[in-house]
Design a protein that fits this description.
It is a single chain. With 71 residues, this protein is mainly α. The chain has helices spanning 2-31, 38-66. The relative contact order is 0.16.
């Protein structure tokens, strides 16, 4: 069904974003002199990824329900 595809697309987007976020935060924080352990970084990034998934899925569903028409 279409909802499953929407969820799969959102999940794929979030996983890729999660991996980018973990690497980017590690590089940026260390460059700024902050010491953050990988476990802390991964945990923080996981929270962001879950919120990102919910946001992406809800927005897609909202557009789907409205049929792209915002009258």
């Amino acid at each position: 069904p279409m909802n499953t595809l929407h969820a799969l697309e959102s999940a794929t987007n979030v996983v890729v974003g999660y991996l980018i976020n973990v690497v980017l935060v590690h590089i940026l924080l260390h460059a700024l002199g902050y010491e953050i352990r990988l476990v802390e970084n991964a945990s923080f990034s996981l929270v962001i990824a879950c919120v990102s998934f919910a946001r992406g899925y809800c927005i897609r569903e909202l557009f789907h329900l409205k049929g792209g028409k915002w009258n």
